[in-house]
Specification:
248 residues, mainly alpha, 11 helices, 75% helix
Length: 248
């Protein structure tokens, strides 16, 4: 069968499997945020989701895009980074909108140009998040352009990109620990995180991606498991918080 497909279309089963895996890499990274988006939209409550998850992914994927110009890794991984950045801005827009609607007393506007470290990544308008990442991207691109021929710098960008992404679960772990509850966090999102990260790490190993990718992929899986442990650890308090929210 393999040789028939190859003769007629210039394809092999290996090609089809490879394309399928590449497509899963691109879409699979976004999929976990669909249940979290729907949950926030349905409950009109964004407090259980840490916006630092979005910051982590925006920084990681912007660095990964810059890394591509210094060391050309597989195109699907580049496309995944672009799609993920778009997804994170969609999540931020929803969270900012919901939090504004839930304000009982109109609070003072906090924007990026205030340059107030106390309110970094806690701004009250969506444009500030765009401005922040635009500044980061332009500065990163300028430095990368100047040092693109310096191999240790390029490798450092690659390491920072995947290490930052590997720490994705850390903000959510901190949020859950602070609340002593996982209320507001989508369990489906975390399960999909875990499955996706296991697949992604295996993909990195099989496709012989740069070492930084698969080492940090293993770290990411470990943090996913810690979050799942928190779901079990805070189960009773999470259930009580849900009953309180429903007015039971």
């Amino acid at each position: 069968m393999d040789w028939i497909i190859s003769d007629e279309l210039g394809l092999t089963v290996g090609h089809l499997v490879g394309w399928g895996a590449a497509g899963a890499m691109i879409i699979g990274g976004v999929a976990p945020y669909i249940p979290q988006y729907r949950q926030i939209k349905r409950t009109q409550d964004a407090e259980g989701f840490s916006l630092y998850v979005c910051l982590t992914l925006l920084v990681a994927n912007t660095l990964r895009i810059l890394f591509w110009f210094g060391k050309r890794y597989e195109l699907p991984l580049l496309i995944q980074s672009i799609v993920m950045n778009i997804t994170m801005f969609v999540m931020i827009h929803l969270c900012v909108t919901v939090r504004k609607k839930n304000q009982i007393i109109r609070a003072r506007e906090r924007i990026f140009t205030d340059m107030d470290r106390k309110y970094f990544w806690a701004w009250t308008d969506f444009q500030s998040y765009l401005d922040c990442m635009l500044v980061f991207s332009v500065l990163g691109a300028a430095i990368t352009y100047l040092l693109i021929e310096f191999s240790p710098f390029v490798e450092l960008i690659g390491f920072l990109a995947v290490f930052t992404e590997a720490m994705l679960g850390a903000p959510q772990i901190a949020k859950n620990h602070q609340n002593k509850s996982t209320e507001g966090m989508s369990l489906s999102m975390v399960i999909m995180w875990t499955c996706g990260d296991i697949f992604k790490t295996a993909y990195f190993v099989i496709r012989e991606a740069p070492t930084q990718f698969w080492v940090c992929g293993g770290l990411q899986v470990s943090l996913d498991i810690i979050i799942l442990f928190q779901v079990w650890l805070y189960h009773d308090k999470t259930a009580a918080a849900r009953r309180l929210r429903r007015g039971d």
